Automatic annotation (TrEMBL):
The chain crosses the membrane at residues 7-31. Keywords: Membrane, Transmembrane, Transmembrane helix. This is Uncharacterized protein. It comes from Sulfodiicoccus acidiphilus.
Length: 84
């Protein structure tokens, strides 16, 4: 995978989170109430065309370490949102 390659990671649960990484840096983050909702937000952003790998069927299949990174980000944010 090239350094600037964009990777989309979907984390599913009671809330849906989608991380877009460029290389190993988080470039975009989407939150939704359903998979369709979060994918719609991704589509509206225009980043969809630039994603080369994902774990949700866009581009080539991705199964690397960025999945765990996105899960940690989503869990941390979910915990913070619980307090509001």
């Amino acid at each position: 995978m090239k350094r600037g390659t964009r990777v989309g990671i979907l984390v599913e649960g009671s809330t849906f989170f989608l991380c877009v990484f460029r290389g190993f840096f988080l470039e975009a983050f989407f939150i939704g109430v359903s998979k369709a909702d979060v994918l719609s937000k991704l589509e509206e952003s225009g980043v969809t065309k630039e994603i080369s790998y994902s774990n949700f069927g866009l581009g080539r299949e991705y199964s690397g370490e960025l999945i765990e990174r996105c899960v940690r980000i989503a869990e941390g944010l979910k915990e913070k949102l619980k307090n509001y």
